[in-house]
Amino acid sequence: MMGNRVYNFNAGPSAMPLPVLEEIQQEFLDFNHTGMSIVEISHRSDAYQKMQDETIALLHKLLNIPDEYGITFMQGGGSMQFLMHGANFLKHRGGYINTGVWSKKAKEGAAFYGDVYDVATSEGEGFRRIPGPEEFDLLPDTDYVYLTSNNTIHGTQWQAFPHIDLPLICDMSSDFLSRPVDVKNFDFIYAGIQKNVGPAGAVIGIAKHSYLETARQDLPIMLQYKTFFDHDSTYNTPPVFCIYFVNKVLHWLDERGGLKETERINKEKAAFVYDAIDASDGFYRPHAAKDSRSLMNITFNLVTPELEKEFVSRAAEEKLIGLKGHRSIGGCRASTYNAVTKEACERLADFMHRFRKVH
Ligand SMILES: *Cc1c(COP(=O)(O)O)cnc(C)c1O
């Protein structure tokens, strides 16, 4: 590990692959022999276009995205999508599988454009689990069903996605490219990149072309998904540096063996931490139900908030950073995104064992 870099378990923005950071640093002054930085060249130049085309091709390859889907880059973060998906696709009624803070916010964002309701929710149980299909309650005139693939704050994740006879919209912000996904099961996917694939400032959208055709068009241009997809992300200046960064991360993922291999590594990594929790005789109390556990965000409590505070500060003394839970639910959280190394997770597990013994 380089110099004073730490073991970073931040929830977002979060750890990025070190080889990617180094490569970007190296070519920051001269992008692809242009004699200019990537942030200094025109988004209408050939050099830029080539890079963006390659990024999109790599996304198609890694996620196995069929040709009937388009890909675009947008700004405004995940939160802008809470509004935009509703603006484009909510005509009568939007159904939400409410699994936590982010799906709730999406529902509230879309409510500006029509009726919204919970198809299912685990709110009564502190969002500890992902509801099963037998719990779904669909109302007539539902335009789409919306879900959040990984609940960053509560530490739950869909293990298998439901098949529903309606358009399916998914927020994959916090587990995008962490595992293979059957894109064909969805009509619209979006992911803010700052959790797993780049710096804050861009959202990747993946849409089925035929579904895009159904979007409302009586909207301001910058609220219409079609504007971004039809203009190949360059209706206006795209988030150039973000896209370039994603390009590097995609190469890194591809070179290490793609999403299957990435999922295998992520499982191995998360197991270190979950095993430390499960072997602790109740010292560490997992927030998520076992069958809903996230491979990306591992949430747990200690007996008292004071002990949690001490856990976080002692961990920081060993360069294990970012373990405080989200302000809305407290407790502790270890985010083990793609770029978090196996070594980091082993160190955390080892620290957890030692901390328990001392207390
Ligand atoms: C972080 C996060 C968001 C919010 O993203 P912003 O870019 O901060 O608006 C939305 N959804 C999920 C699942 C997230 O993890």
Automatic annotation (TrEMBL):
An annotated GO cellular component: cytoplasm
Annotated catalysed reactions: 4-(phosphooxy)-L-threonine + 2-oxoglutarate = (R)-3-hydroxy-2-oxo-4-phosphooxybutanoate + L-glutamate; O-phospho-L-serine + 2-oxoglutarate = 3-phosphooxypyruvate + L-glutamate
Transit peptide among keywords: no
Sites bearing N6-(pyridoxal phosphate)lysine, chain numbering: 195
EC number(s) recorded for this UniProt protein: 2.6.1.52
Domain Aminotransferase class V: 6-348
Chain sites annotated for binding L-glutamate: 44
Principal cellular location given in the protein's record: cytoplasm
Subunit field text: Homodimer.
Biological role: Catalyzes the reversible conversion of 3-phosphohydroxypyruvate to phosphoserine and of 3-hydroxy-2-oxo-4-phosphonooxybutanoate to phosphohydroxythreonine.
Protein name per its UniProtKB record: Phosphoserine aminotransferase
Organism expressing this protein natively: Megasphaera micronuciformis F0359
Top-level taxonomy: Bacteria, Bacillati, Bacillota, Negativicutes, Veillonellales
